Amino acid sequence: MLHKALYKALLYQHPLLLHILSFLHQLKQKQKYEYLPH
After folding, report:
1. pLDDT for position 14
2. DSSP assignment of 1-38
3. What pLDDT does 2 receive?
4. For residue 24, how far is the Cα from the chain centroid?
5. How much is the pLDDT for 19?
6. Do 10 and 17 contact (CB within 8 A), yes or no?
7. What pLDDT, on a 0 to 100 scale, did the predictor assign at position 38?
8. What three-state secondary structure class fits 9?
9. pLDDT tens-digit profile of 1-38?
């Protein structure tokens, strides 16, 4: 995981990157839950 200060600096300069990263993170979470046995 990125250092929080570096992470915040990146997000501050590239707000679009924040949306992309959060979107990808949500996709990963969905895939994890889909693969879990019900």
Report:
1. 78
2. ---HHHHHHHHHH-HHHHHHHHHHHHHHHHHHHHHS--
3. 54
4. 5
5. 83
6. yes
7. 58
8. helix
9. 557 888 788 767 877 877 888 898 898 888 877 776 75
The pair of three-digit structure tokens given for residue 14, joined into one six-digit string: 């590239």
Residue matched to tokens 């990125």? 2
C-alpha dihedral, 24 to 26 to 31 to 34, nearest 10°? -170
**In sequence order, what are the residues at sequence separation of 6 or more whose Cβ sits closer than 8 angstroms to the Cβ of residue 2?**
10
Nearest residue to 6 via CA among 30, 17, 37: 17
Tokens of residue 18, six digits: 């924040």
